[in-house]
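seq:
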Amino acid sequence: MRKYGSNLPKDPAILSDQDCPTEDGDENPERGNWTNKTEYMLSMIGFAIGLGNIWRFPYVAFKNGGGAFLIPYFIMMVLCGIPLFFLESAIGQFCSQSPINVWRAVPILQGVGFSMVIVNALIAIYYNVIVAYSMYYLFASFQFPLPWSKCYSWSDRNCSTTPLVYCNESGVLVANWTQENSTCPVSGVIKVPVQSPSEQYWDRVALQRSSGLDETGPIVWHLALCLLLSSCILAASLIKGIKSSGKVVYFTATFPYVLILILLIRGVTLEGAREGLEFFIGSRSDLTKLTEGQVWKDAATQTFFSLAIATSGVLTLASYSNFHNNMFLDSVIVTFTNHVTSVFAGFAIFSILGHMAHVYGKPIEEVVKEGFGLAFIVYPDALAKLPISTLWSILFFFMLFIIGLDSQFAQLEVVTTCLCDAFPELFKSKRPLLTIVSVSILYLLGLPCVTRAGIYWVTLMDQFIASWVLLFLALFEIIAIIYIYGGKNFIEDIEMMIGKKGFCFWVWWRACWYFISPCIILVILLWSLTTFVPPSYGKIQYPAWGLALGWCMVSFVLMWVPLVAVYKLMRAEGTLWQRVKSLCVPSEDWGPYLEIHRGERYSDENCRRRRAVLTNKQM
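struct:
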């Protein structure tokens, strides 16, 4: 049993947000706390708002009815986003432990904690590579004209800034024919597929992409160096854990909003911008889309993944909060900020895409893409058409780099926190060394993703790991906390931190935790599994061994749930039924980390008595 501050009053009602502060202002001198509430909130917002808010949400909103999509999007935030974010924040803050140790509340499912940490580590590997892509484009933007503005020596004959149209006259192709020439019959017009300079630059210069996953090729050294530089910046930012990253987020969590605003102001002044905004959120919005189930599924999916639920990042960041911090209000603010930021970024993206469609004389549907296609092909192409294109390109890729780096802070913090909490005697005094070693391993594991086949590895990991696997973990999480540990116990734990709340306050959260949120997760999970399509990169399909490797990654993540459960059952005593029941009851060391916060409810004797009562009752 931990015995910190045992001589201080234990009545939570008289303890403030700065209970038992050390000279550094930490109420938890062993693990440390956020220096102030601002650093915590900025870190949470920086973690939640990732690259998906920039390059995925605008496309999802566009294809699902534009402005009409905001209705299910914000409804899902209320029904699923805030409840799950609130749940994870409360668990982490209550016990002030790593994502693995919090499962002392439900020992039989501690494997879920291991799975969450492994998912986080796998995401961190390829996320670091995407940040390296952004850094490379940032450096490449310091040229005038931009290197992807025209077809230079690196391009092939399929590269063109305008569509190539030929006329087949009596079996002879006339190459210099143009659409303005009306002498060619319609049946004789032949349109030759071409690639824009930005697309060929992405494939042939930035990635040096091979023909498929089978052709690994050598390391692309300019990407490897960018990966190394971004890793060094990450290590420097986290060298002292939250004490150093908390200072960095003052810049990384706020400056992207300045950049988005600059891009938005420039975008709305361009010709054709209004057309883009009308398609995104405007008169072209299609309210009839609200009758389609796919729209609601996409809204829930975007909400779930943009908040990074079940990746253990929220649990970890919240574990460094002061015990009596109002995590409920924090959860509402962070989730709402996340959703509003997606819409805000969408305006900046679509205003410039509208201008691009105007320049090319194409419908906007033909220029809109998502993911890598939007961030590294379509948008750079649009920026290259602007006056002072170098400036706008630098701003855009600097924004992507900062947003990606901000999300990585929490991803790496999860790993180091788990190790420090598991082996405090070994790692507490060696936090800087642990951070450097962790980042070094992350860099080495990312090297296969910067080979010529690297983009295929990144896509494979993204499609298999950062998808429905997280839905499984979130479902396990809510079942464990609400149904096994007990919603009543969980609510009493929350009230120890934020004070007593009325019955009406908890009616809504009980409804969400017991029924609404798990049902939404289950529907999305089943829908995702039944409609699963093997991933591909554009028109390039993955080989059978590549898909098998993807399923192996999924198995490696989820196998810890049954393995840890079996291991704990083997070490427990009694009949099989008695073992199961004893592992569904919180362990004796579950509860607030500091003695002054444990109070009468979590005193040693009460914990033993309650555990015995619960075990006997279940038998």
